[in-house]
Write a structure and sequence with these properties.
By secondary structure, the protein is mainly alpha-helical. 38% of the residues lie in helices and 0% in strands. The chain has helices at residues 9-19, 33-37.
């Protein structure tokens, strides 16, 4: 998998070894921290 923003070997290694399988969490939203913590489904 090639990602456009991974511009060097360190970035590629960090992504593939640590981040690739993690969930994407977007804190720029209108949810309260409590709803995020409680994993509220809408």
């Amino acid at each position: 998998m090639k990602i456009f923003c991974l511009t060097n070997e360190i970035a590629i290694s960090l992504f593939h070894d640590y981040v690739k399988e993690m969930s994407i969490i977007d804190y720029h939203c209108h949810l309260s921290p409590k709803e995020i913590y409680e994993n509220k489904n809408f």
